[in-house]
Design brief:
alpha/beta; two-stranded antiparallel ribbon; 8 strands; binds 3'-phosphate-adenosine-5'-phosphate sulfate; binds adenosine-5'-diphosphate; ATP binding; cysteine biosynthesis; ATP-binding
Length: 281
């Protein structure tokens, strides 16, 4: 806090471009982010008022770059949401990344049930934590306990499951996290749609290339046994499809009796992130 009761400026958010854009003199608002005579919030309010006079219609579902929603100047219709407008905030991804000293991205781990997705995700998250990098795991099983509890395992519900997790992962990456999503995500198309949600290169697909036989032998939850007995219908790999990736950034192979440890697998992902520069801002 400074003498006037405001928090000092956050480091790194005072680019001249943004100060110019939001420039505002005076101001004594309760949410005044303050510093240096610039009230970012009030200026943004001014900008919204101006734009309201300008808008006169809706735009299509998707912008040319494929990212739905971020039309800064006009009202949009996205799906069933009519007359919505993107609200920009002064603190951006690049600012959060500087704070966290890393780059936000999505690590998408796909593979059969029992292939080791959750184990690698947790090993990776732990190794990142030990290095001082912030990550968060979105595990399909866990998310089906809450956000996606309304979804079954039929193809269209799996697609919606993947879409929602893709959207959440996109937010985490935008927050600056290394977001680790681990879901069976059996359909190429669903995974490709998630890839398209984030800036190119920020989506790292990791394929757990583990034969069905190995997964079935592990069967830690007894689900394969139930599926073979016909007590679970539409189980991936048994009577439901799994489409392996054709162009995954990382393939973690595990042949019968010849498996790297989860830590070695996680290490491969860390090496990839290091080389690509995600572990520093
Ligand atoms: N029919 C069927 N097919 C596949 N898996 C099933 C099924 N029914 C329940 N389960 C359990 O649900 C976990 C997979 O959830 P996901 O959200 O990752 O699946 S999907 O991506 O929507 O296909 C999966 O967890 P993992 O073993 O961790 O993959 C299973 O425990
Ligand atoms: N690299 C590995 N080598 C040997 N066993 C593993 C390996 N990774 C995971 N496992 C074991 O395989 C089983 C399934 O792992 P899990 O992470 O739950 O898979 P998934 O999330 O894909 O269903 C667990 O019993 C786990 O201990």
């Amino acid at each position: 806090m400074n003498a006037s009761g405001f928090k000092p400026a956050l480091p790194g958010i005072s680019s001249s471009k943004r100060l110019g854009f939001f420039s505002f003199s005076g101001g004594n608002q309760p949410f005044d982010l303050k510093p240096r005579g610039v009230c970012l919030i009030k200026a943004a309010m001014e900008e919204t008022r101006t734009l309201k006079l300008d808008v006169n219609g809706k735009v299509g579902d998707k912008l040319p770059n494929g990212h739905a929603g971020k039309n800064h100047n006009q009202l949009s219709t996205i799906g069933n949401s009519t007359n919505i407008k993107w609200h920009e905030c002064p603190v951006e991804k690049i600012d959060r990344q500087k704070l966290l000293k890393q780059k936000g991205c999505v690590i998408w781990i796909t593979g059969l049930s029992g292939s080791g997705k959750s184990t690698v995700a947790c090993a990776l998250s732990h190794m990142l934590y030990q290095r001082g990098n912030l990550s968060y795991v979105l595990d399909g099983d866990n998310i089906r306990h809450g956000l996606n509890r309304d979804l079954s395992f039929k193809a269209e519900d799996r697609a919606e499951n993947i879409r929602r997790v893709g959207e959440v992962a996109k937010l985490f990456a935008d927050a600056g996290f290394i977001c680790i999503a681990c879901l069976i995500s059996p359909y190429r198309r669903d995974r490709a749609e998630c890839r398209a949600m984030v800036p190119s290169k920020d989506f790292v697909e990791v394929f757990m290339d583990v034969p069905l036989q190995v997964c079935e032998n592990r069967d830690p939850k007894g689900l394969y046994k139930l599926a073979r007995a016909g007590k679970i219908k539409g189980f991936t790999g048994i009577d439901d499809p799994y489409e392996p990736p054709l162009d995954a950034e990382i393939v973690l192979q595990c042949n019968t009796g010849d498996c790297s440890t989860p830590c070695d697998m996680a290490e491969k992902v860390i090496s990839y992130l290091e080389v690509k520069g995600y572990l520093q801002a």
